[in-house]
Design a protein that fits this description.
- By secondary structure, the protein is α/β, with parallel strands linked by helices.
- The protein is about 25% helix and about 15% strand.
- The chain is built from 16 helices and 19 strands.
- It has helices at about 40-45, 50-55, 90-100, 120-125, 185-200, 230-235, 240-255, 270-275, 310-325, 340-345, 350-365, 395-405, 410-420, 460-465, 470-480, 485-490; strands at about 20-25, 60, 65, 80, 105-110, 140, 160, 165-170, 205-210, 260-265, 285, 370-375, 490-495, 500-510, 510-520, 525, 535-540, 555, 560-564.
- A hairpin with a 4-residue loop joins strand 7 and strand 8 (about 165-170).
- The radius of gyration is 23 Å and the shape is globular.
- The relative contact order is 0.11.
- Bound molecules: 1-deoxynojirimycin.
Length: about 575
């Protein structure tokens, strides 16, 4: 099919990221080249051909900087060094070269709300050494009485007492991740220098970790004890956040060609829309999380009675708002902090292939720059954890401990349930390359257990099967590249009240695409509310695509794209 249409956009000098599909790599779990059980940079280099085959335009690399690894790299001890377990700077340079040779750009993770407590800045700060003494939030006072009632996102108080400095320090994540004091201009200058350093080395963009938390209000006031975690309303979207982002933009992020996407938990669609609309904060995109929080927000207290049920009409409502209110959305269905998309939104057993390919169709036909999480392109799904000992994730462990202390959970079964519902390790199990030992991820012992279904779900098997989830991703990424309406077209929701069908139109000039998704395990008939005469079937996730959409009964998790 000739899907290319000349549009006025063709003549514009587009930014590269508007037409990109981005692939997120969680390096610890991607591919281990040296047998130590942990993924590494050379392991990624070995698989750049896989990324190229998939057709992605950029890679977002979760942190590979030097780190004690309490939060798997989201605790940095040296911003300018690569952690030994991932290799060395020369390996990173080789990776950039290999990616760039194939026209794939590299986006680095920027963890700038906090450092590791092993960072030299913190070590000097706790010793009271100038100018580092004011690099973090320190408060003197009674060692039994934290300075305010803020709680950490990872469970427990957001303050820890340091015996060396004889003062409290703030950490909105783990106690090993002290928050940088962004009020201090020296901190802001140091961070800008770090960004310039990576930029000069060839980085094409940045994902700002925990961006919504870097500004805290004057006086650090107590939070409402009924919010979970207490204080989050104060330590999200603080009063000087815009000013800090603007300063970074002026210093470095505003440079032509650099793409910046901000991770913003605890952010409404309205707020995300404002950040993206702003001309001065340097943010091209914001990750807004309402859709992935639809089942059960990861921030809620654990409720063993709560069900995982979610409602398709509510999902449509959220995604439609993201698609229509945010100037340039960043659609995603998974990342390293979330359950696997096919387990959350699909049926990872009976309709594994169908629902994983439906999700691919959804993600890759939305407006904006889609982000594909590693493993989703082969339909990797949640693991089955039996007990806490199988868990590595600092957040799961921290929250289990605080729920146990609060008496919310006590039995082994409740712990097992919590872990399976909430653990970020579902997304972190090793990438499944083959049906061989440890799924071909490592020759050693993997740092986290491999998902049991690797013999069936793996890259090698997917490559050999023309109807695999992988084949579908490749086809859709190609289609997106050649059909501008999927990238830029306006999004219009059809049938908002339908409980099974999620259908929408994308329109650009004279060109219209219609996407029909039967997001259920039962057949569903599409009575089109818009004219579909002469519709051409472009592609679908069953081998025979229904030739016309109107009046067609779509099969379980069937997804089809039409050109109207
Ligand atoms: C968000 C990251 O995605 C997550 O993995 C990390 O634990 C926190 N920020 C703290 O850096």
């Amino acid at each position: 099919m000739d899907t290319h249409v000349e549009t006025s956009e063709d003549s514009l000098d587009r930014e590269w990221w508007t037409e990109a599909v981005v692939y997120q790599i969680y390096p610890r779990s991607f591919n281990d080249s040296d047998g130590d059980g942990v993924g590494d940079l050379s392991g990624i280099v070995e698989n750049v051909a896989y990324l190229d085959e998939l057709g992605v335009d950029a890679v977002w690399l979760s942190p590979v900087y030097e780190s004690p690894g309490e939060d798997n790299g989201y605790d940095i001890s040296d911003y300018r060094a690569i952690d030994d377990q991932y290799g060395e700077l020369a390996d990173w340079e080789r990776l950039v070269e290999c990616l760039h040779d194939r026209d794939i750009r590299l986006i680095m993770d920027l963890v700038i709300n906090h450092t590791a407590d092993e960072h030299a800045w913190f070590q000097r700060s706790r010793a009271g050494e100038e100018p580092y003494d004011e690099f973090y939030y320190w408060r003197e006072g009674d060692p039994a009485e934290p300075p305010n009632n803020w709680e950490s996102i990872f469970g427990g108080p957001a303050w820890s007492y340091d015996d060396q400095r004889e003062a409290w320090y703030l950490h909105v994540f783990d106690e090993s991740q002290p928050d940088l004091n962004w009020r201090n201009p020296d901190v802001r200058r140091e961070i800008a220098d770090v960004i310039s350093w990576w930029r000069e080395k060839g980085t094409d963009g940045f994902r700002i970790d925990a961006a919504s938390h870097i500004s805290k209000p004057e006086g650090l006031p107590d939070g409402d004890p009924d919010t979970d975690p207490t204080g989050i309303a104060h330590y999200s979207h603080g009063p000087t956040l815009d000013a800090y982002l603007e300063e970074l933009t002026e210093r470095t992020l505003g440079e032509a060609g650099v793409m910046t996407v901000a991770e913003m938990g605890h952010t409404t669609v309205e707020q995300a829309a404002e950040y993206v609309a702003s001309e001065s904060n340097g943010l091209e995109m914001v990750f807004q999380f309402d859709h992935v929080g639809i089942g059960d927000s990861p921030e809620d207290l654990f409720d063993p009675e709560a069900s995982d049920e979610w409602d398709l009409t509510a999902l449509k409502d959220i995604v439609t708002r993201q698609q229509t209110e945010i100037a340039w959305p960043a659609p995603f269905l998974g990342n390293h902090d979330l359950p696997r998309a096919v387990s959350l939104f699909g049926d990872d057993e009976r309709y594994h292939r169908e629902s994983a390919t439906l999700l691919a169709t959804f993600l890759l036909t939305l407006r904006g720059t889609p982000f594909v999480y590693q493993g989703d392109a082969i339909g990797m799904h949640n693991a089955e954890f039996q007990h806490l000992a199988e868990i590595d994730d600092v957040m799961t462990i921290g929250r289990v401990e605080s729920l146990q202390e609060a008496g919310v959970i006590d039995s082994r079964e409740e712990v097992r349930q919590f872990v399976n519902e909430r653990s970020r390790d579902h997304a972190r199990t090793p990438m499944q390359w083959t049906d061989g030992k440890h799924a071909g991820f490592t020759d050693g012992s993997p740092w986290l257990k491999v998902n049991e279904r690797y013999t069936e779900i793996n890259v090698e098997a997917a490559r050999a099967d023309t109807h695999s989830v992988l084949a579908h991703y490749r086809e859709l990424i190609d289609l997106r590249h050649e059909w501008a309406v999927l990238v830029d077209g306006d999004y219009e929701l059809l049938l908002p009240e339908d409980e099974q069908l999620y259908a929408y139109r994308r329109t650009l000039s004279e060109e219209t695409a219609l996407i029909v998704l039967n997001w259920s395990a039962e057949p569903a008939t599409f009575e089109s509310p818009v004219p579909t005469d002469g519709a051409d079937a472009v592609t679908g996730n069953y081998t025979d695509v229904p030739s016309t959409p109107d009046g067609t009964t779509f099969r379980p998790y069937e997804a089809a794209i039409y050109r109207l």
